[in-house]
Prior knowledge:
Layout: H1 5-10, H2 15-44, H3 47-50, E1 69-81, E2 86-97, E3 102-108, E4 112-119, E5 122-123, E6 125-127, E7 133-142, E8 148-156, E9 175-178, E10 190-193, E11 214-223, E12 227-230, E13 233-239, E14 244-255, E15 262-265, E16 268-275, E17 281-288, H4 293-300, H5 303-314, E18 324-327, E19 335-336, E20 341-344, H6 361-369, E21 377-379, H7 386-403, H8 406-427, H9 447-463, H10 465-479, E22 482-484, H11 486-497, H12 502-508, E23 516-524, E24 527-534, E25 546-554, E26 557-565, E27 569-575, E28 580-585, E29 594-597, H13 601-610, H14 614-624, H15 630-639, H16 645-653, H17 663-676, H18 680-693, H19 700-713, H20 717-727, H21 732-745, H22 751-764, H23 770-778, H24 785-799, H25 803-808, H26 810-819, H27 821-855, H28 859-887
Zinc ion is lined by residues 1-2, 366, 370, 389, 392.
Amino acid sequence: xxxxxxxxxxxxxxxxxxxxxxxxxxxxxxxxxxxxxxxxxxxxxxxxxxxxxxxxxxxxxxxxxxxxxxxxxxxxxxxxxxxxxxxxxxxxxxxxxxxxxxxxxxxxxxxxxxxxxxxxxxxxxxxxxxxxxxxxxxxxxxxxxxxxxxxxxxxxxxxxxxxxxxxxxxxxxxxxxxxxxxxxxxxxxxxxxxxxxxxxxxxxxxxxxxxxxxxxxxxxxxxxxxxxxxxxxxxxxxxxxxxxxxxxxxxxxxxxxxxxxxxxxxxxxxxxxxxxxxxxxxxxxxxxxxxxxxxxxxxxxxxxxxxxxxxxxxxxxxxxxxxxxxxxxxxxxxxxxxxxxxxxxxxxxxxxxxxxxxxxxxxxxxxxxxxxxxxxxxxxxxxxxxxxxxxxxxxxxxxxxxxxxxxxxxxxxxxxxxxxxxxxxxxxxxxxxxxxxxxxxxxxxxxxxxxxxxxxxxxxxxxxxxxxxxxxxxxxxxxxxxxxxxxxxxxxxxxxxxxxxxxxxxxxxxxxxxxxxxxxxxxxxxxxxxxxxxxxxxxxxxxxxxxxxxxxxxxxxxxxxxxxxxxxxxxxxxxxxxxxxxxxxxxxxxxxxxxxxxxxxxxxxxxxxxxxxxxxxxxxxxxxxxxxxxxxxxxxxxxxxxxxxxxxxxxxxxxxxxxxxxxxxxxxxxxxxxxxxxxxxxxxxxxxxxxxxxxxxxxxxxxxxxxxxxxxxxxxxxxxxxxxxxxxxxxxxxxxxxxxxxxxxxxxxxxxxxxxxxxxxxxxxxxxxxxxxxxxxxxxxxxxxxxxxxxxxxxxxxxxxxxxxxxxxxxxxxxxxxxxxxxxxxxxxxxxxxxxxxxxxxxxxxxxxxxxxxxxxxxxxxxxxxxxxxxxxxxxxxxxxxxxxxxx
Length: 888
Ligand SMILES: [Zn+2]
């Protein structure tokens, strides 16, 4: 699963959630302190006090589920009652006792109506009191070498499931009917499912635990106009007498119940293939809404290359029947790796022109990689989730490294690491393999993903590529179709490398936090002593063993030294000849940790030109550009021509250090970059910088021309958006131009641009723009991360309208709260609360006015104000009701 929470965290929008977590952690700490104090008190206390000793419990621990029954085969026959958002199902389950003989079968079955449970046509007794577990009494006691089959007839009623969910997965209804009655003309009616973590049991009875796996067949009966998708191979389509059609999908390889999926709708299906080394052709279909058909290949077209690359890299062929991908609306997460039938949220809908700025290859790679790590080999418990997600996260690095280059991969990895640092600061630190989580959904955090990916990267660099990938191959082959825990991974690497790796797994997977290193050096004649101190709090973090490379640059030469940092205070001395030019600790730039390394700014300048990694150049530009000497300024100018786009973008932000006498030169640079840099991020930064710093005095005219040219001619929506925004910083006349351009651009199919237009209308528009804004925000045209800014800007504009307009467009808020999807849901509650606060202020103000008028004896005018208050109060009541429903 690809979660969407980091952006929300980085925007600080989950503040309330973060606070809750913080509190939980504090509670835990105080509990521990209390119990240790009490133990001491008890030992000194009198007998009378001793009799009051409280019971001390073992720490909370989430084990893997005890396996009573081995689920072997699942056959489902389903059809839908769209009007009621319900599903008729017949589940035929083949099972056997796992070890101990038993006459009972306990299944997870949530919010269902169970009609019957039968074995060979005879009714079995069952209990289904709590609408959670279906407890079946078998006809006799079975032993583990006996199989039996039960047939369950039921109705799935997902709307009756009490909702849970998490920051990663915003709901756990399992089965979702989107616009089932076709009431919203803008949206295609369709159905999709979401199993992870344990929500598959909302749509079929199963043992909904990650340490089960089962083969699968499913018969889906639909009206003939619909396409269906499920796991496994498409076997047949049969027309029924009543005009419906039954599609039959079958998967002979076992997988975990949370990976089961279905999607139904009038999708367009774009067909692609991947040919395995043995010549087998694997179908790859892209299921999209018909209007997206022409873009499907551009969105998903790298998939065959990814399968080929990952299969080769891992030395383990893609095992499953096919690899189809489907885009759905109102999805509750980012994407989900259902075996051979991956679901994506609508943020992946991008036109070819939008794909110039950004693509979702990383997410496509992430879900694909799960087909080895997660689907072929599955974590046995949610506490072991990093065995799925750390690998999927790391696949994004592997893909970037191969196809976009090491700089790009390192740049994204750095952002991933920052995601971990930021979010764990807010949400708290815990062991990677987190046995004492409070809610299994909490596992889907920046530890399992971001930190997990970085740990694997360190392990790869420690072992070397040969041992690392050989270890992964062994792990996959030894544990295929089996549940695993973290030790399986360690044992595979240990066997391949012939080396004990407990120390590595202990400190990174089974402990919390990360290293903090304080680095300094003392230089004497021909010798340099590098001091590396571990300064992390050893109460909560381990004292790490860190094998590192130190690069010593002197006299135009570099020497690399392998060292091991394993004490709190570490000292390493190296000889050098001539002039010492730089020291780089962690030359490979793989270590996840916080460093403080004070070194001369001249060294950073040297580092920019001589150290090979992205991070070397990024740090060099950040610190070296502070050097007042000409070399510092030259560094900025050279970085404008760096091969890697982000360094060029960063260099633009340093141009202000060049001083006013360089203005003409800087303007020329920005002009060139704004018009001809190959990367649209760089062009848009150059445009924004021109608008901020040069849209005045002697540069005003030329800047205006550059901005207008960009709006009219640049192929990138990102650049067009930046130029529009930039032009608003000019004269009143420029703003008029912007509004005219905006009007023309309303028809463009770009989520980012539409979100930008909402921002512009919020600041410069009027009530005549609300129609477009309302359409854009409710039609699904603004999706993914853009929806977050879109909703906030819309709400702010909406609040500034009069009460009549607010009432008229209240349906927009209602629609967003009903059908928002994961991104909207992340910010809507806060936006609504802000609206209520603003309204409260309006009401208080009117109340005050009315009282003042009353006491001044102006009761006529007071009555007018009270009339206004009534209107506002009506709106407020509606708003409060909506807030109650949303938070309800
Ligand atoms: Zn994932």
